[in-house]
Specification:
314 residues; mainly alpha; Alpha-Beta Plaits; two-stranded antiparallel ribbon; 2 strands; 3% strand; globular; binds iron/sulfur cluster
Length: 314
Protein backbone atom coordinates (compact mmCIF):
# COMPACT_ATOMS: atom_id res chain seq x y z
CA UNK A 1 0.00 0.00 0.00
CA UNK A 2 1.51 3.42 -0.95
CA UNK A 3 2.26 5.81 1.93
CA UNK A 4 -0.56 8.21 2.73
CA UNK A 5 0.44 11.89 2.46
CA UNK A 6 -1.24 13.29 5.57
CA UNK A 7 -0.49 16.94 4.77
CA UNK A 8 -2.23 16.86 1.39
CA UNK A 9 -5.01 14.73 2.82
CA UNK A 10 -5.71 17.24 5.58
CA UNK A 11 -5.93 20.02 2.96
CA UNK A 12 -8.43 17.97 0.94
CA UNK A 13 -10.39 17.18 4.09
CA UNK A 14 -10.64 20.83 5.09
CA UNK A 15 -14.20 22.10 4.69
CA UNK A 16 -13.00 25.30 3.02
CA UNK A 17 -11.24 23.37 0.24
CA UNK A 18 -11.62 23.79 -2.72
CA UNK A 19 -14.11 26.67 -2.29
CA UNK A 20 -11.47 29.00 -0.88
CA UNK A 21 -9.54 28.80 -4.15
CA UNK A 22 -12.58 28.52 -6.44
CA UNK A 23 -13.92 31.94 -5.49
CA UNK A 24 -10.80 34.06 -6.29
CA UNK A 25 -10.22 32.05 -9.49
CA UNK A 26 -13.82 32.74 -10.57
CA UNK A 27 -13.36 36.47 -9.85
CA UNK A 28 -10.15 36.57 -11.94
CA UNK A 29 -11.99 34.70 -14.72
CA UNK A 30 -14.83 37.25 -14.68
CA UNK A 31 -12.26 40.04 -14.94
CA UNK A 32 -10.48 38.26 -17.84
CA UNK A 33 -13.78 37.80 -19.71
CA UNK A 34 -14.63 41.48 -19.23
CA UNK A 35 -11.19 42.52 -20.43
CA UNK A 36 -11.35 40.23 -23.50
CA UNK A 37 -14.63 41.80 -24.61
CA UNK A 38 -14.23 45.39 -23.48
CA UNK A 39 -10.46 45.88 -23.08
CA UNK A 40 -8.01 46.96 -25.84
CA UNK A 41 -8.59 45.13 -29.15
CA UNK A 42 -4.84 44.69 -29.58
CA UNK A 43 -3.71 41.38 -28.00
CA UNK A 44 -0.39 42.85 -26.83
CA UNK A 45 -2.14 45.52 -24.75
CA UNK A 46 -4.96 43.32 -23.46
CA UNK A 47 -4.49 42.09 -19.91
CA UNK A 48 -7.04 39.29 -20.40
CA UNK A 49 -5.07 37.87 -23.34
CA UNK A 50 -1.82 38.08 -21.39
CA UNK A 51 -3.30 36.32 -18.34
CA UNK A 52 -4.92 33.60 -20.44
CA UNK A 53 -2.38 32.77 -23.12
CA UNK A 54 0.93 34.03 -21.73
CA UNK A 55 0.55 33.03 -18.06
CA UNK A 56 -2.17 30.39 -17.63
CA UNK A 57 -1.78 28.31 -20.81
CA UNK A 58 1.97 27.55 -20.38
CA UNK A 59 1.48 26.95 -16.64
CA UNK A 60 -1.37 24.49 -16.97
CA UNK A 61 0.70 21.44 -18.13
CA UNK A 62 3.02 22.00 -15.17
CA UNK A 63 0.03 22.09 -12.81
CA UNK A 64 -1.28 18.86 -14.36
CA UNK A 65 2.08 17.13 -13.96
CA UNK A 66 2.54 18.26 -10.37
CA UNK A 67 -1.01 18.02 -9.02
CA UNK A 68 -2.87 15.90 -11.57
CA UNK A 69 -6.27 17.19 -12.49
CA UNK A 70 -6.48 19.55 -9.51
CA UNK A 71 -7.12 22.48 -11.87
CA UNK A 72 -10.55 20.95 -12.61
CA UNK A 73 -11.47 21.28 -8.91
CA UNK A 74 -10.97 25.06 -9.02
CA UNK A 75 -11.77 25.73 -12.69
CA UNK A 76 -14.13 28.71 -13.08
CA UNK A 77 -16.22 26.89 -15.71
CA UNK A 78 -16.85 24.07 -13.21
CA UNK A 79 -17.76 26.68 -10.56
CA UNK A 80 -20.29 28.21 -12.98
CA UNK A 81 -21.70 24.72 -13.64
CA UNK A 82 -22.05 24.04 -9.88
CA UNK A 83 -23.91 27.32 -9.25
CA UNK A 84 -26.23 26.88 -12.23
CA UNK A 85 -26.99 23.37 -11.02
CA UNK A 86 -27.83 24.66 -7.54
CA UNK A 87 -30.15 27.34 -8.91
CA UNK A 88 -31.94 25.67 -11.85
CA UNK A 89 -30.48 22.15 -12.05
CA UNK A 90 -32.68 19.36 -13.43
CA UNK A 91 -30.13 16.74 -12.42
CA UNK A 92 -31.02 14.38 -15.23
CA UNK A 93 -28.85 11.31 -15.74
CA UNK A 94 -26.09 11.59 -18.31
CA UNK A 95 -27.39 10.44 -21.73
CA UNK A 96 -25.99 7.08 -22.88
CA UNK A 97 -24.76 8.75 -26.04
CA UNK A 98 -22.52 11.09 -24.03
CA UNK A 99 -21.17 8.26 -21.89
CA UNK A 100 -20.24 6.34 -25.02
CA UNK A 101 -19.08 9.07 -27.36
CA UNK A 102 -18.22 11.99 -25.05
CA UNK A 103 -14.51 11.38 -25.42
CA UNK A 104 -14.84 11.63 -29.21
CA UNK A 105 -16.72 14.92 -28.83
CA UNK A 106 -13.81 16.10 -26.65
CA UNK A 107 -11.32 14.97 -29.32
CA UNK A 108 -13.23 16.77 -32.10
CA UNK A 109 -13.65 19.90 -29.98
CA UNK A 110 -9.93 20.00 -29.23
CA UNK A 111 -9.01 19.58 -32.92
CA UNK A 112 -11.49 22.30 -33.97
CA UNK A 113 -10.23 24.79 -31.38
CA UNK A 114 -6.56 24.35 -32.27
CA UNK A 115 -7.39 24.49 -35.99
CA UNK A 116 -9.59 27.58 -35.57
CA UNK A 117 -6.87 29.26 -33.51
CA UNK A 118 -4.46 29.04 -36.42
CA UNK A 119 -6.92 29.89 -39.17
CA UNK A 120 -8.81 32.67 -37.34
CA UNK A 121 -6.06 33.76 -34.92
CA UNK A 122 -8.02 33.29 -31.67
CA UNK A 123 -4.99 33.73 -29.43
CA UNK A 124 -4.05 36.93 -31.24
CA UNK A 125 -7.55 38.34 -30.90
CA UNK A 126 -8.97 39.28 -27.49
CA UNK A 127 -12.50 39.32 -28.94
CA UNK A 128 -11.92 35.90 -30.55
CA UNK A 129 -10.73 34.52 -27.19
CA UNK A 130 -13.77 36.13 -25.56
CA UNK A 131 -16.13 34.45 -28.04
CA UNK A 132 -14.42 31.11 -27.36
CA UNK A 133 -14.95 31.62 -23.60
CA UNK A 134 -18.59 32.47 -24.27
CA UNK A 135 -19.15 29.32 -26.34
CA UNK A 136 -17.60 27.19 -23.58
CA UNK A 137 -19.64 28.99 -20.90
CA UNK A 138 -22.84 28.33 -22.89
CA UNK A 139 -21.99 24.61 -22.99
CA UNK A 140 -21.17 24.63 -19.27
CA UNK A 141 -24.45 26.38 -18.36
CA UNK A 142 -26.50 24.01 -20.53
CA UNK A 143 -24.85 20.91 -19.06
CA UNK A 144 -25.18 22.27 -15.50
CA UNK A 145 -28.85 23.19 -16.00
CA UNK A 146 -29.92 19.83 -17.41
CA UNK A 147 -27.59 17.10 -16.20
CA UNK A 148 -26.32 15.77 -12.89
CA UNK A 149 -22.93 16.38 -11.28
CA UNK A 150 -20.22 17.79 -13.54
CA UNK A 151 -21.37 16.25 -16.80
CA UNK A 152 -19.56 18.94 -18.79
CA UNK A 153 -16.22 18.30 -17.06
CA UNK A 154 -16.37 14.53 -17.34
CA UNK A 155 -17.85 14.07 -20.81
CA UNK A 156 -17.47 17.25 -22.84
CA UNK A 157 -14.68 19.56 -21.75
CA UNK A 158 -11.68 19.48 -24.09
CA UNK A 159 -9.40 20.79 -21.35
CA UNK A 160 -10.70 18.05 -19.06
CA UNK A 161 -9.81 15.49 -21.74
CA UNK A 162 -6.26 16.82 -21.99
CA UNK A 163 -6.08 17.15 -18.19
CA UNK A 164 -7.10 13.50 -17.84
CA UNK A 165 -4.19 12.34 -19.95
CA UNK A 166 -1.72 14.55 -18.09
CA UNK A 167 -3.23 13.49 -14.79
CA UNK A 168 -2.20 9.88 -15.45
CA UNK A 169 1.37 11.24 -15.47
CA UNK A 170 0.85 13.38 -12.35
CA UNK A 171 2.80 13.09 -9.11
CA UNK A 172 -0.30 12.52 -6.93
CA UNK A 173 -2.56 9.47 -6.76
CA UNK A 174 -5.82 9.20 -4.84
CA UNK A 175 -7.01 5.65 -4.13
CA UNK A 176 -9.29 3.80 -1.73
CA UNK A 177 -8.15 1.02 0.64
CA UNK A 178 -9.79 -2.22 -0.62
CA UNK A 179 -10.06 -3.86 2.85
CA UNK A 180 -11.93 -0.84 4.29
CA UNK A 181 -14.21 -0.45 1.26
CA UNK A 182 -15.11 -4.15 1.31
CA UNK A 183 -17.08 -3.62 4.56
CA UNK A 184 -18.68 -0.35 3.43
CA UNK A 185 -22.43 -0.10 2.95
CA UNK A 186 -22.87 3.66 2.42
CA UNK A 187 -20.72 4.35 -0.67
CA UNK A 188 -20.66 7.91 0.66
CA UNK A 189 -17.72 8.74 -1.59
CA UNK A 190 -19.95 8.38 -4.65
CA UNK A 191 -23.37 9.17 -3.16
CA UNK A 192 -22.29 12.14 -1.05
CA UNK A 193 -22.89 12.85 2.60
CA UNK A 194 -23.42 15.62 5.14
CA UNK A 195 -19.95 17.06 4.62
CA UNK A 196 -19.81 17.26 0.82
CA UNK A 197 -21.66 16.22 -2.32
CA UNK A 198 -20.84 12.94 -4.05
CA UNK A 199 -17.98 12.65 -6.51
CA UNK A 200 -18.59 15.37 -9.12
CA UNK A 201 -16.81 13.33 -11.79
CA UNK A 202 -18.84 10.13 -11.32
CA UNK A 203 -15.89 8.21 -9.87
CA UNK A 204 -16.15 5.38 -7.34
CA UNK A 205 -12.80 5.43 -5.54
CA UNK A 206 -12.85 1.73 -4.68
CA UNK A 207 -12.85 0.82 -8.38
CA UNK A 208 -10.45 3.56 -9.51
CA UNK A 209 -7.25 2.23 -11.02
CA UNK A 210 -6.15 5.41 -12.77
CA UNK A 211 -6.10 9.14 -12.04
CA UNK A 212 -7.54 10.36 -15.33
CA UNK A 213 -10.84 11.58 -13.91
CA UNK A 214 -10.08 12.41 -10.28
CA UNK A 215 -9.75 16.15 -9.75
CA UNK A 216 -8.62 15.88 -6.13
CA UNK A 217 -11.61 17.91 -4.97
CA UNK A 218 -11.51 15.99 -1.69
CA UNK A 219 -15.28 15.28 -1.49
CA UNK A 220 -14.65 11.56 -1.04
CA UNK A 221 -12.01 12.24 1.63
CA UNK A 222 -14.54 14.34 3.57
CA UNK A 223 -17.42 11.89 3.14
CA UNK A 224 -15.78 8.51 3.67
CA UNK A 225 -16.82 7.20 7.13
CA UNK A 226 -13.99 4.65 7.15
CA UNK A 227 -11.02 6.87 6.33
CA UNK A 228 -10.39 4.65 3.32
CA UNK A 229 -8.96 7.24 0.95
CA UNK A 230 -5.21 7.62 0.64
CA UNK A 231 -3.30 10.26 -1.28
CA UNK A 232 0.20 9.24 -2.20
CA UNK A 233 3.03 10.78 -4.15
CA UNK A 234 4.61 8.83 -6.99
CA UNK A 235 7.11 9.21 -9.78
CA UNK A 236 5.43 11.28 -12.54
CA UNK A 237 4.36 9.11 -15.54
CA UNK A 238 4.55 5.87 -13.48
CA UNK A 239 0.86 5.14 -14.06
CA UNK A 240 1.33 5.06 -17.84
CA UNK A 241 3.19 1.76 -17.61
CA UNK A 242 0.39 0.04 -15.71
CA UNK A 243 -2.73 0.99 -17.70
CA UNK A 244 -4.86 -2.14 -17.50
CA UNK A 245 -7.50 -1.19 -20.08
CA UNK A 246 -6.00 1.04 -22.79
CA UNK A 247 -8.64 2.92 -24.79
CA UNK A 248 -8.03 4.01 -28.36
CA UNK A 249 -10.14 7.18 -28.01
CA UNK A 250 -7.99 8.33 -25.06
CA UNK A 251 -4.69 7.43 -26.74
CA UNK A 252 -5.98 9.21 -29.86
CA UNK A 253 -6.17 12.54 -28.03
CA UNK A 254 -2.68 12.10 -26.57
CA UNK A 255 -1.17 11.11 -29.90
CA UNK A 256 -2.75 13.80 -32.11
CA UNK A 257 -1.42 16.44 -29.71
CA UNK A 258 2.06 15.41 -30.89
CA UNK A 259 1.07 16.25 -34.47
CA UNK A 260 -0.64 19.49 -33.42
CA UNK A 261 2.39 20.68 -31.43
CA UNK A 262 4.62 19.80 -34.39
CA UNK A 263 2.49 21.75 -36.87
CA UNK A 264 2.16 24.73 -34.53
CA UNK A 265 5.93 24.93 -34.21
CA UNK A 266 6.82 24.30 -37.84
CA UNK A 267 4.47 27.06 -39.01
CA UNK A 268 6.47 29.54 -36.93
CA UNK A 269 9.74 28.66 -38.67
CA UNK A 270 11.13 30.11 -41.90
CA UNK A 271 11.12 26.68 -43.48
CA UNK A 272 7.31 26.75 -43.38
CA UNK A 273 7.32 29.48 -46.09
CA UNK A 274 9.09 27.16 -48.58
CA UNK A 275 6.91 24.20 -47.60
CA UNK A 276 3.79 26.32 -48.06
CA UNK A 277 4.87 27.32 -51.62
CA UNK A 278 5.38 23.67 -52.51
CA UNK A 279 2.01 22.75 -51.06
CA UNK A 280 0.32 25.62 -52.90
CA UNK A 281 1.60 24.38 -56.26
CA UNK A 282 0.66 20.80 -55.35
CA UNK A 283 -2.89 21.75 -54.31
CA UNK A 284 -3.36 24.46 -56.96
CA UNK A 285 -4.48 27.04 -54.39
CA UNK A 286 -2.77 29.81 -52.44
CA UNK A 287 -5.45 29.95 -49.76
CA UNK A 288 -3.45 29.67 -46.47
CA UNK A 289 -6.48 28.19 -44.68
CA UNK A 290 -6.53 25.26 -47.13
CA UNK A 291 -2.78 24.64 -47.08
CA UNK A 292 -2.78 24.79 -43.27
CA UNK A 293 -5.78 22.45 -43.00
CA UNK A 294 -4.05 19.87 -45.20
CA UNK A 295 -0.79 20.17 -43.21
CA UNK A 296 -2.75 19.95 -39.95
CA UNK A 297 -4.60 16.80 -41.07
CA UNK A 298 -1.40 15.11 -42.27
CA UNK A 299 0.48 16.07 -39.08
CA UNK A 300 -2.24 14.44 -36.96
CA UNK A 301 -2.54 11.38 -39.20
CA UNK A 302 1.17 10.49 -39.06
CA UNK A 303 1.39 9.82 -35.29
CA UNK A 304 -1.96 7.98 -35.39
CA UNK A 305 -0.61 5.70 -38.14
CA UNK A 306 2.58 5.24 -36.12
CA UNK A 307 0.45 4.27 -33.11
CA UNK A 308 -1.37 1.66 -35.23
CA UNK A 309 1.97 0.37 -36.56
CA UNK A 310 3.43 0.13 -33.02
CA UNK A 311 0.30 -1.66 -31.72
CA UNK A 312 0.38 -4.06 -34.66
CA UNK A 313 4.11 -4.75 -34.19
CA UNK A 314 3.62 -5.17 -30.41
S1 LIG B 1 -14.12 5.09 -0.10
FE1 LIG B 1 -15.18 5.11 1.86
S2 LIG B 1 -17.32 5.59 1.35
FE2 LIG B 1 -16.30 4.92 -0.56
S3 LIG B 1 -16.72 2.74 -0.68
FE3 LIG B 1 -14.73 2.99 0.34
S4 LIG B 1 -15.21 3.01 2.51
FE4 LIG B 1 -17.15 3.38 1.44
S1 LIG C 1 -12.56 10.57 -6.54
FE1 LIG C 1 -14.11 12.08 -7.02
S2 LIG C 1 -14.72 12.96 -5.03
FE2 LIG C 1 -12.75 11.90 -4.75
S3 LIG C 1 -11.23 13.53 -4.99
FE3 LIG C 1 -11.46 12.47 -6.98
S4 LIG C 1 -12.99 13.70 -8.07
FE4 LIG C 1 -13.13 14.28 -5.90
Amino acid sequence: MPKDNTVIKSILRNRFFPGIIQIPVAIIFAFITYELFFGPADAHSNFGTALTWVLWWPLIPLIFLSFGRLWCAICPFATVSDYIQKIVGNNRPVPKFLKKYGIWIIDIFFILITWADHVFGIVESPRGSGVMMLIITTGVITAGAFYERRTWCRYLCFLGGVAGNYSRCGALALRATPEKCAKCTTLACYNGGKKAPGCPLFEVPRTMDDSARCNLCGHCVKNCPNDSITISTRIPSKELWFISKPKFEESFLAIIIMGIVFVQNITMLQVWGRGQHMLESLLGTSDPAITFTVTFAVAMAIPVLMLFAASWAG
